[in-house]
Amino acid sequence: MSVAELQGLEREYAIPTYVRNPVQFVRGSGARLWDADGNEYLDFLAGISVLNVGHCHPRVVEAVRDQVGRLSHVSNLYYTEPAMKLSAALSESSLGGKVFLCNSGAEANEAAIKLARRARPGGNIVVLEGAFHGRTYGALSATPQETKQAPFAPLVPGFVVVPRDPGAVSDAVDSGTAAVLLEPIQGETGIHVLSDELLVAAREACDRTGAALIFDEIQTGMGRTGTLWAYEQTEVVPDAMTSAKALGGGLPIGALITGPRLADALHPGDHGSTFAGGPVVASAALVALELCSDEALLARVRVAGSRLAAGLARLPYVTVVRGRGLMLAIDVDPEIDAASLARRALLEQRLVVNATGPATIRLEPPLIVSDDELDEAVARLVAIAP
Fold it and tell me: Could you tell me if 187 and 215 are in contact, meaning their C-beta atoms sit under 8 angstroms apart?
């Protein structure tokens, strides 16, 4: 079907919650995409940091095909080997506690909120200005953005919003705090790296009061920043963390991972999900986790990130480059509309990026991106200079 025909179906049958670009992708491989007309695109968004191992990685495809041909679903009333192996692999790769598998990042954060409230009933959750934790009600309540929250009030009570300031975080945490929930690098609002001082202040405040420190690593995890988990590049280890996006290698999955202290805070019947950790997505996630744990790949991400950042800094309309590894953003000249620039990159240069605000463009290519592809992306951005 043509894009025009798909737009017609959307107008008649799809609830209009998305603003889609007029492109229909039909195939992907590595860091490349192809549309219905056979045009090739360079993908520097990776499905919003989902395809860290690239489109259609052969090992992920093989794992999915093998598993879906044998068993696709039985529910969590029974055991499956992929789910238990994935839980073990996630724990051993990170905090060493226990794992709750779910279907998305928002669900993982919902589970984290319930974990914190189970450990300290009735406690507040401290979150930061500029945070994004999802669109379901608990996760939305932890996302202090007026445009996202206001239409759906009243929200879940008990969330305390503080500036991205170490002192403010420390002052907000007391004996009535269940958790501090934060992203080590805020993604959806434009790739803002939280300072080590803020993370340390949050850790010390939680240690002082018994609150839980929870890291949302949904976008930062799975090698995106140059280590498997972003917290590994800081002085701080959280009590729990959430993962999703790239964890499934392109399939939908999420996970709440605890450290030892909170491993048994949730009890049988406290939480659940029909499809969570199903054998097909768990099989894909086991492969994706193994691939993203490779030290050579992680070292490559750090080098590639530096190369891309340097190239972006040379663009004539760029005022700021920020981020870590291959999780980068650029701020453009205030007279330039970032959304229009991203659209031109897509339609004129066949480069996939996205705008996260009026002046900010986000770049998150697959971690397997080559030097030639990095340089090609910069060249395409040069070509659309206003």
Answer: no
Both tokens of residue 295?
Answer: 């030290």
Say how many C-beta atoms besides its own lie within 10 A of residue 294's C-beta. Answer: 13
The pTM (predicted TM-score) of the whole model is 0.97
Separation of alpha carbons 365 and 360, rounded Å = 16
Q: Quote the pLDDT of residue 386.
A: 87
pLDDT digits (tens, 9 = 90+) for 343-373: 999 999 999 999 999 999 999 999 999 999 9
CB contact burial 111-122 (16+ within 10 A = b; e otherwise) = bbbbbbbbbbee
- Evaluate if residue 20 carries a pLDDT over 90: yes
Q: Check if the beta carbon of residue 368 is closer than 8 Å to that of residue 54.
A: yes
Report the DSSP pairing between strands 327-332 and 318-324. antiparallel
Instruction: Give 65-102 pLDDT, tens digit per residue.
Output: 999 999 999 999 999 999 999 999 999 999 999 999 99
Catalytic machinery residues: 132, 216, 245
Q: How far apart are CA 104 and CA 110, in angstroms?
A: 10
Q: Which residue, 236, 124, 116, is CA-closest to 174?
A: 124
Asked if 108 contacts 142 with a C-beta cutoff of 8 angstroms, the reply is no
Measured between alpha carbons, how far is residue 255 from residues 88, 110, 112, 181 in Å?
A: 12, 11, 9, 15
Average pLDDT, the chain: 98
Distance CA(11)–CA(277), nearest Å, equals: 34
Q: How confident is the model at residue 31 (pLDDT cuts 50, 70, 90)?
A: very high
Domain architecture of the chain: domains with CATH:
69-263+273-292 (3.40.640.10)
Cα–Cα distance between 361 and 364 in angstroms, integer?
Answer: 10
